[in-house]
Amino acid sequence: MIVGCKQRQKPIRPTQGAITESVYASGILKSKGQYQAFAVVSGIIDSVYVAEGQLVSKGQKLLTITNDQQRLTSERALLAAEYASLPANLPRLQELQRNVGLAAEKLGNDSLLLARQQRLWQQKIGTLVQVEQRQLQYNASAAAWKSSQRQLADLRRQLALDAKQSRLTWAISRAQQEQFIVTSHVDGVVFDLLREKGESVGPQTVLAILGNADNYMLELQVDEYDISRVRSGAEIFVTMDSHQGQVFEGMVLEVHPIMNAQTRTFTVEAELKQTPPGLYPNLTLEANIVCAYKKNALLIPRRYLVDDSTVLRKNGDRIRVRPGLRDLEMVEVLSGLSAKDEIIQPEQ
Fold first, then answer.
1. 325: Cβ contacts below 8 Å, ≥ 6 apart
2. Model pTM greater than 0.70?
3. What tens digit of pLDDT does each residue of 125-142 get?
4. 2-31+215-344: which CATH number, 2.40.30.170, 2.60.40.1190, 2.60.40.2550, 3.90.550.10?
């Protein structure tokens, strides 16, 4: 008991030194531009044009999906577009145009006959019935001519509408057909192919993972308790299991403004100042995000604090202090102690 008491009462004095306060984060390495290529249609993978590790350019074809129903729908839309086109319906237009011409000729002829009959009637030649008959014939011809004109105009409008609608249907079908061709969205590399030729896929099926093989970013998860101290531009120090014994410097790029309700963490994006060789997507890492640094601070070990704001003098008296920056071992004392004061560690 005497020995234990003496060890507990061994005093120390605050020291002057540098201290760095940081926030712990864990995360993974991601390629810049990394994304998952999804299928947006249902069908069977017909052809695969790339291999894992292959460099690709933006817009390059990765694979194609086939679907007989969609192919037949596309062919039907093409046939409908061809059938509804104006050139295909030219004979119908020409027939109605001839009908309009014949109706116009008949109207002209009946107009002459009516005028002739009216002159004869004025000369007391013929009967009123003959005049009325000619008038009826003229009226019928005029109505037939106007009707043929309306039919021609209606046919032109209908054909134009049908042609436009069929072209639109064909364009939609072609756009849908293009969805059966999966292309790269980036200039980069194929990290992983998740499906093979002959496999059945549906909408939202992940087909491949692609990204930039030369540029990587860090996707970190920071606890909600610490996120208020993290700022864009903050310095970070990173360790990775794949590069044991090495510490890499980096910088925070962006703090995502919404918390993951399940993990109670925020996503923080960062980058390395220098990219070492041998990096791959999804490598795990740990990071310390620097929140503050002071070169000449008054420091005591954190274990000497009581209730986070009190220390014990050499004689056992309690004194309140105002703590500042902290790291895993030390804490800065802003007020309440001087470098000459002696303090003892409280009992555990």
1. 19, 20, 21, 292, 293, 294, 297, 331, 332
2. no
3. 888 898 899 899 999 999
4. 2.40.30.170
